[in-house]
Amino acid sequence: MNPLENIESLAYFAPEILLVIFAAAVIILDLLVKNRESEKVAYLALVGLGCSLVAILITNSILGTNESKNLFFGMIRLDGFAVFFKVLLLLATAATILFSLRSEELDVRLKGEYYALLLAVTFGMFLMASATNLLMIFIALETVSLTSYILAGFLTHSPRSSEAAFKYITYGAVASGTMLFGLSLIFGMAGTGDLATIGQQLPALLGSGEVTALGVLIAITFILAGIGYKIASVPFHMWSPDVYEGAPIPITAFLSVASKAAGFALFLRFFFSGFGNSEVMQSIDLGLLLAVVSALTMTIGNLAALPQQNVKRLLAYSSIAHGGYLLMGAVLLTNGNAAIVDKGIGAIIFYLIVYFFMNLGAFYVVVLIANEAGSEMIDGYRGLSSRAPLVAGAMAIFLFSLTGIPFLAGFFGKWVLFAAVIEGKLYWLAFVGLLNSVVSLYYYARIVKAMYFETAEDTDRLSFSKGTFALLSVFVVPTIFIGLLNIFYSLSERITLQ
Amino acid sequence: MLLSLMIFVPLLGMIVVLLLPRESEELIKRVALVFTLIPLVLAVYLYITYNQPDLEHLWKQNVPWIETFNIQYHVGIDGLSAILILLTALLGPICVLASWRNIEKGIKAYMALFLLLETGMLGFFAALDLFLFFVFFEMTLLPMYFLIGVWGGPRREYAAIKFFLYTLFGSVLMLVAIIAVYLNSGAPGDRTFDIPTLITLAGTAGHALADPVFQRWIFAGFFIGFAVKVPIFPFHTWLPDAHVEAPTAISVILAGVLLKMGTYGLVRINMDMLPEGMAYFTNGVGFVGNSLALLGFINIVYGSFCALAQTDFKKLVAYSSIGHMGFVILGLAAGNEVGVTGAILQMFNHGVISAMLFLLVGVLYDRAHHREINGFGGLGNRMPIYTGITTLAFMASLGLPGLSGFIGEAFSLLGAYERFQVLTILSTIGIVVGAAYFLWTLQRVFLGTLNPKYEDLPEINRREILTLVPLGILTIVLGIWPHFAIEMFSESVVELTTKIMGTLQASL
């Protein structure tokens, strides 16, 4: 299949183009409206996301099922996989904007560029989900990183937020540099930046001895630093608790869901297209490395979450742990059996859908409680069951879903992942993952305990608007029902990489 | 259809309760009572009709659920599940009645959670799809956690999380076993969770599921999951804590039904689906071959001695539960018709008797606000009716012939004696100790001089008697004519034990 040239590609690139146009429009509108009314800016950003979503769906229907197009001379690729991630990322951005509108900590009603940046970061993530060239991968990653740094530091009056942005940028710069080095090593070995070509050439190069397996492994390890930083996997996770704690809550929610999802999209495509060949996988033996990283990520994330008192920080560690669970699916990419590779990808996709709802939902509750009760600490959640029964109930559902208690979606997400891992014969990894689920119950239950078993000094009922409950139910209802319906399983099974 | 109706009526009740205003407490209680009485009525109808072939279709349902993994919503009954469904449905309204006055806050949430719990329990006993079975098994965790944690005693938070963590730990091992069974059940596309199909496959020579080594590992995975629930030593330590802290009705449901979920699972999965695994752990050869019987023995003796040492009335009953569940394990380990019949009978009887005991402890606690056995004395004069019912429950529990507790224990021991003489003889220590602690408690609480503090302790009231009478009648009736229960499951037991004994013979 020949890659499309630049002009032909533009039609398929409409979703991204729309995002950029609206990002510019948001900045212009911000200049025009009076400060107090700049909620309009946020709505314009939402309209932009809506247009982009329509464009994604249109390109998808033109594309047809199981088709794909290489755009811009093979720089990016549009396929079902990319479409899925774009929709997921776009919805995450929309949710973040809605959270931001309700967040009182964030005085963004005064700041239109906040929304422009959110659209820009989404644009970068779209590229991450579809990049098929080493250069493009790096550019996409940098677009996302640079905009994220600013978003994390958006609470200009808060030293914590500035610290978060500074830590984020320092770690980020090191990770990007390391990754760039790895990318150049690969480029030097294969003589091309195109992932598919690398994938075709590597077996021959390895076979002829021109390239050693160790060299490839070293290059991949360097690249893993960049990707691992995005998905916050051990040992590149250190930034995330501080950044998550310091950043505005909506941005924390965004980073923990969208950034992670985009990181996984990139990760899967990069390894599948570039190194997915079973000969390559066998000779470089990446599976064990990934499995160990996965096991460490979930274990360290969960153990570090245990003593946390700040809910944001606790959820930060929890999202590290969930990154570890997701990595179990990624380990399956190294399995020689194509059916199991597909299962792994499907499991990651299904888990991301579930994670999207339960994690964003939990962060939304954190936003609400920070607004109303003025606290991010677990103590601030005391007696919430009597002060705000519906919100407390929703939070309990999100937390137990994150633990993986049956009939909630989180359980089904884990089920799909563990079934795939056991089918891939990684028994020890599945076992570590399951024990981790048990450990995680303890810290999630601490929040539930505060909400339900303890009483607050302050017993006034908290009041929330109807819109709040409507948005909350957008997350609660899927968290209860996703696992019980077949369509999400079949959806995740259909999305594969080619 | 009727079976699904029975399972989901309490869930519907939960929704109704949640929609009622929280101020109308009387209405909430009445609604909850109605929604637990409906399953009871259906269960009675089940008891009448379960063995009529032309009505069989009422009691099963099989519809596809998650097609991607070939998961079905498959429910059905046989004698064993029918008797436990009957027990669950019976204890449901009794627990609602027992919670009528002594739940002081949040009655709405309490009843909603209780109804959710009942759906989980009924669904678990009816599930014939392994995945569904697991979902229902776990579905009981959340309501139980909140019921103990919110409405429990002073150390409720600790007890609730301990219960939750222990059970979750057991169930993740079970989940691994379930996934392994599923993956080995056939080629991709043919895999199934259907329990009857899996049982057939596991008995088909040459099939991956029939491999003895595979079955041993899977047996261990399931066993630990169920052992935490039963609870079997050394996974039992959550039980006394949970019981002591839980409100009365929740203790009743915990001892009456939740513990049976563990032993039911052992019969349904470990024995019926994994006979090779069962044979390996009960063939009487060496330590491993005696392990299941040994665990039963430890439960009996250890539970009984612990009970003897307690001064907290409720803790005593809790430890006695551990001891009595040991007889179930011992009877199941025997694997012969007499032993398994005894074990199942003991499951039902223990459900009834321990429910009575916890209700009785609750009655006393509601009046005196403590449970210290040594703090009472001479209550026999003050509360004669209460004393009478308690004596009946104690006698039933210590295994007095003529009451139901005796039959189950005697059969379990009889069955076990054929296979494990020494352990069975040693297990009878448990009966002696059991008699000792119950009689001693009787003496300390009801005989002697009345503690002046309790001179005007009110007698047991009509509502409380109403909760105890049906259970009391059952202990007497089943003590005299156990066939009312045995005839329900004897056919299933014969089929099961023939298979177990056959596998055992072949493996020796």
Helical content class of chain A? over 70%
What would the principal axes of the Cα set say about the shape of chain A? globular
Spatial strand sequence of the major β-sheet of chain A: 1-2
Q: Terminal Cα separation of chain A, in Å?
A: 12 Å
Question: How many H/I helical runs of chain B?
Answer: 22
Helix share bin of chain B: over 70%
Strand residue content of chain A: under 5%
Number of helices of chain A: 21
Placed side by side, the strands forming the largest sheet of chain B appear as: 1-2
Radius of gyration of chain B (CA) equals 22 Å
Specify the oligomeric state: heterodimer
Supply Rg of chain A: 22 Å
Order of helices and strands of chain B: HHEEHHHHHHHHHHHHHHHHHHHH
Give the integer mean of the pLDDT values of chain A: 88
Q: Biggest β-sheet of chain A: count, sense, barrel?
A: 2 strands, antiparallel
- The 3D shape of chain B can be described as globular
Average pLDDT, all residues of chain B:
89
Number of strands of chain A: 2
